[in-house]
């Protein structure tokens, strides 16, 4: 399961847009989702796209194509929407489910494979992000823990640790994945572009990204 937002100008990655600009930020977000969906599809596992807001299904399917299974995110906050996605998946018969965000351009099929394999030996899996949150979480149907999504300080730097503590307090086993960087600020994007090899991730090999990386190295942007 991947959580996506309808790519409307000014409504995605607003912190990044404050410095990068709304048009370039929208382009980045769309490229990021394309990259992550490619990694998910290469795994061979079923993929569900959970979109937000709930009434943007037609817009999102026009963007990403009709080959995907689209489901609206349901709930009054992020935690409720995540829990609802798991409950929907398990009620549809899946025995293991993994949920991730859509702003992790370095996410790979091998990380998904590790996550799925981890749920054979463990009751849960989580992938920490560098800002203190997490980019992925998964459960078996028999060990799903709704309270992992309740009363969490979303957006704070303690989301990952608070969630891990909640899971361990319940006695569930957990596998922790490698840390990855989600992209919320311009600094995050520049670090990402400087870290990857040119041409290694095709959506981010365009002239626009190369120019952004070069300008950061010459001090034109910070």
Strand order of the largest sheet: 4-6-5-7
* Radius of gyration from CA coordinates: 17 Å
Oligomer: single chain
Q: Which structural class matches the secondary elements?
A: alpha/beta
Largest sheet: 4 strands, mixed
Strand content: 5-15%
User: Which overall shape is indicated by the principal axes computed on the Cα atoms?
Assistant: globular
Low-confidence stretches: none
String of helices and strands: EHHEHEHEHEEHEHH
Total of helices? 8
Q: What is the straight-line distance between the termini?
A: 34 Å
Q: What is the share of helical residues?
A: 40-55%
Structural description of this entry:
The chain has 222 residues and is an alpha/beta fold. It has helices spanning 14-20, 22-42, 57-64, 78-91, 109-121, 159-169, 186-195, 207-217, and strands at residues 2-5, 48-52, 69-72, 96-100, 124-128, 134-140, 174-176. The strands form two sheets. A four-stranded mixed beta sheet has the order 4-6-5-7, sandwiched between helices. A three-stranded parallel beta sheet has the order 1-2-3, covered by helices on one side. Strand 2, helix 3 and strand 3 form a beta-alpha-beta unit. Helix 1 (14-20) packs across helix 2 (22-42). The mean pLDDT is 93.
Structural key phrases:
222 residues, alpha/beta, four-stranded mixed β-sheet, three-stranded parallel β-sheet, 15% strand
SSE blueprint and pairings:
Blueprint: E1 2-5, H1 14-20, H2 22-42, E2 48-52, H3 57-64, E3 69-72, H4 78-91, E4 96-100, H5 109-121, E5 124-128, E6 134-140, H6 159-169, E7 174-176, H7 186-195, H8 207-217
Parallel strand pairs: 1-2, 2-3, 5-7
Antiparallel strand pairs: 4-6, 5-6
């Amino acid at each position: 399961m991947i959580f996506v937002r309808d790519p409307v100008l000014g409504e995605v990655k607003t912190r990044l847009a404050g410095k990068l600009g709304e048009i370039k930020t929208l382009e980045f977000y769309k490229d990021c989702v394309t990259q992550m969906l490619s990694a998910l599809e290469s795994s061979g596992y079923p993929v569900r796209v959970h979109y937000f807001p709930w009434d943007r299904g037609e817009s999102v399917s026009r963007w990403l194509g009709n080959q995907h299974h689209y489901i609206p995110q349901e709930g009054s906050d992020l935690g409720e929407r995540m829990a609802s996605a798991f409950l929907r998946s398990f009620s549809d018969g899946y025995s293991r489910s993994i949920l991730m965000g859509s702003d992790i351009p370095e996410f790979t099929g091998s990380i998904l494979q590790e996550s799925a394999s981890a749920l054979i030996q463990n009751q849960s899996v989580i992938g920490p992000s560098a800002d203190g949150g997490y980019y992925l979480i998964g459960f078996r149907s028999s060990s799903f823990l709704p309270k992992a999504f309740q009363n969490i300080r979303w957006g704070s730097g303690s989301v990952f640790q608070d969630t891990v503590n909640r899971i361990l307090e319940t006695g569930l086993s957990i596998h922790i994945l490698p840390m990855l960087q989600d992209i919320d600020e311009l600094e995050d994007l520049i670090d990402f572009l400087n870290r990857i090899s040119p041409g290694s991730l095709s959506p981010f090999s365009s002239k626009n990204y190369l120019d952004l990386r070069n300008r950061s190295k010459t001090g034109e942007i910070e």
